[in-house]
Amino acid sequence: MSVEHRFLVRELKLVLARPGDFFKPMWFLILVISMVPLALSPDSKLLGEIGSAMIWVATLLALLLNADQLFRDDFVDGVLEQWLFFNRPLFWLVILKLFCHWLFYVVPLILVTPLAGMMLSVPNDVMIALLVTLLLATPALTCFSALGAALTLGTARSGILGVLVMLPLFAPVIILAAGVLTRASDGSDILPLLALLGAFSIAAATLLPLAVGVALRLNIGGSS
Amino acid sequence: MGWRWFHEWGSPKWFYDRAGRWQRVCGFLALALLLVGTLWGLGFAPADYQQGNSYRIIYLHVPVAFLAQALYVAMAVCAIVLFVWKMKLADVGMQALAVVGFGFTVLALFSGSIWGKPTWGTYWVWDARLTSMLILGFLYLGLIGLRSAIKNPDLAGKACAILVLVGVVNLPIIKYSVEWWSALHQPASFKLTEKPAMPASMWVPLLINLLGYYLVAAYLVLASMRTVILDRERGSAWVREVIERD
User: Fold this and answer.
1) CB–CB of B155 and A215 under 8 A?
2) Which of B163, B167, B177 minimises the CB distance to A176?
3) Which residues of B touch A183 (CB under 8 A)?
4) Between residues 106 and 135 of chain B, which touch chain A (CB distance below 8 Å)?
5) ipTM of the shown complex
6) Which of B13, B79, B218, B246 could cross-link to B164 by cystine, CB 3.0-4.6 Å?
């Protein structure tokens, strides 16, 4: 079995071993969304107008729930040290790890958002645009939150710091996604903005793993 | 010539003494320039035909907002120096710049909102410049938070350097995306490529103040670098000498 294959199998086993971590973000998302009508108003027209933005923010927060855990367990039990001895570059292992995280934790969360959309009576075409923006934007968001997690590995369990440090950098992604949603709701062309969003995600997914690798190496104690 | 300067710059004691002298020079020059620029700007420059006298806060607001961004770039230069030449002084510089930069960002937001009230009728709008300045403030705050959370100073410095570099790549993207999103703020007062739109009697004092505030920033950064050096080198003999001397 190749390193990549074993890596993916191990990540899958870890997910299966901790089903709580798998379901908690979805649970959080639905819970937050059910609070929105209580806090705002049960009026479905009003909810439909702001629903997509609420779902976006709630999904973002749900993503950040697990972000701090990304490397912490592997760091504590010494697996990260083993990464340095693989005959693979560190950033490639980071990419694999982030891909697994995205596939096993983020994509299931995105698949739950249509339910949240129904709860807030978001129109169908906006819901489809919402799903596409989430799929395009989450790789970038995962990479940024991974950098936050990697930078704060050396601190005692202060889970929120990585999020606080990284959240300002999410701004362009959120703006572009919100632009797509506004255009989708008034029926204009969303493809140019989707292309920009995809470009941002691709740039983040190719460049940030390098930075995450440097940050991990710092914390493992190797030379940078 | 050779590499002597490199070793000198690597020595905290050498820098501490030199920076003390530079700090005094910066302080006096800043005082002189700010006195001239502020008096000229507040007392003698003509009033704006639209905004009347309320525009005069420009003599504080523009330099401070300018510096808030320039200091981040300076921090990025320090981060590169730290990574390439492993110069510890660059890390000290980064630590000082983060705090001073955050101060200038807060001052820019604050003076901007005071200016916004008579001009736009509100202290805060979700305009592009204001929003990207707010995000810049959060980036500075994140750097200060990250450094204070990591105990090992070497590790903290390098972690901050990574964050600074990721931030500096992102800042233009944030700026343009936010600008596309919403723009109410007047365009930049100074551009290197164009002649300013205001008359010389308005922009000359502004330029003097801009230089003055640059020197204020240099003064503050040097002062805070010297404090950081004393703190980091507190075990060494020369620090004890310095403290007993002063």
Assistant:
1) no
2) B177
3) none
4) 131, 135
5) 0.87
6) B79
Work out the average pLDDT over B197-202: 76
Cα separation, B163 vs B79, in Å, equals 9
Task: Report CA A190 to chain centroid distance, whole Å.
Answer: 22
pLDDT at residue number B238: 86
Note the pLDDT of residue A21.
85
Q: How far is B134 from chain A, CA to nearest CA, in Å?
A: 9
Find residue B52's DSSP bridge partners. B48
B106 pLDDT higher than 90:
yes
Both structure tokens of B72 = 């981040």
pLDDT: which is higher, B8 or A85: A85
Total residues belonging to chain B = 246
In the structure encoding, which two tokens stand for residue A116, read together? 């949240």
Q: Are B220 and B27 in contact (CB under 8 A)?
A: no
pLDDT, averaged per 10 consecutive residues of chain A (224 residues), comes to 86 90 92 92 87 92 86 88 87 93 93 93 91 94 93 77 89 88 84 91 93 91 54
Q: How far apart are CA B21 and CA B230, in angstroms?
A: 16
Which among B175, B149, B169, B170 has a CA at the least distance from the CA of B160?
A: B149
For the beta carbon of residue B47, count every other beta carbon within 10 angstroms: 12
DSSP codes of every residue in B40-73: IIIIISPPBTTTBGGGGGHHHHHHHHHHHHHHHH
Mutate to test the interface with A, among B129, B173, B176 (most CBs of A within 10 A): B173
Sign of the dihedral defined by the CA atoms of residues B234, B237, B243, B246, in that order: negative
DSSP A55-83: HHHHHHHHHHHHHTHHHHHHHHTTHHHHH
Take residue B50 and report the two structure tokens written for it.
């639209």
